[in-house]
Design brief:
212 residues; alpha/beta; Rossmann fold; 53% helix; globular
């Protein structure tokens, strides 16, 4: 039996994944669930999963931060990223951070089952055709990267929240950081993007098709 620990902050999505995996005859079972990175990390030792399914967009610590934390504390547990973000945005970054695969939430159920089997049974990384294309393009691209590619994971997370119109206090509350820290990140984002205000950040996100 392949034990899966599923981390996603949307209960309906978790229920959907549970029905897909628990209904297969491939010996895959959701052994535990988590709605945040903190909850996920607290359950790893008790659940002892064979693989972790992790969403990138999580409250508090983001999925990328969670991935790095898991690889630091439990390097032998494979992590598959399940995200609504398109492959070209985060696939390469996630794989470089230690993920064993990257799947868009629009993937077919069979693809998810195949990915889990590959990373657990074959102990190999799962590279979908979409991610393979992104990796090839990344390898052969020598032009200078756009400014947002130089943002840290937390900076990118806050950039997106600003573009969504969230107030500084809301961002601080959702990410469990101080308002001063949000201002510090905002200053770094503005400097890296070459804009002057929140409006500039929003226009940058829209112009570069980064909005979910």
């Amino acid at each position: 039996m392949i034990k899966v620990l599923l981390a996603d902050d949307h209960p309906l999505f978790r229920e959907g994944i549970k029905k897909i995996l628990n209904s297969t005859s491939n010996g895959i079972n959701i052994a535990g669930e988590a709605a945040s990175v903190t909850e996920l990390c607290s359950k790893i030792d008790s659940v002892k999963p064979d693989v972790i399914l992790l969403d990138l967009s999580m409250p508090g610590k983001g999925g990328m931060e969670g991935l790095k934390e898991i690889k630091a504390t439990h390097p032998n547990i494979p992590v598959l990223i399940l995200s609504m973000y398109p492959e070209e945005r985060f696939a390469v970054r996630a794989l470089k951070a230690g993920a064993h695969g990257y799947l868009n939430k629009g993937a077919l159920p069979d693809e998810l089952v195949n990915a889990i089997q590959k990373v657990v049974v074959q102990k190999r990384k799962y590279i979908s055709p979409q991610v393979a294309e992104v990796l090839v393009e990344d390898f052969h691209t020598y032009k200078e990267k756009p400014p947002h590619e130089y943002l840290s994971d937390r900076e990118e997370q806050i950039m997106m929240m600003i573009a969504q119109g969230k107030k500084t206090s809301e961002i601080a509350e959702q990410l469990f950081i101080s308002i001063h820290t949000v201002h510090t990140y905002r200053s770094r984002i503005i400097k890296k993007l070459g804009v002057k205000s929140n409006i500039g950040i929003t226009h940058y996100v829209i112009d570069n098709n980064l909005m979910e």
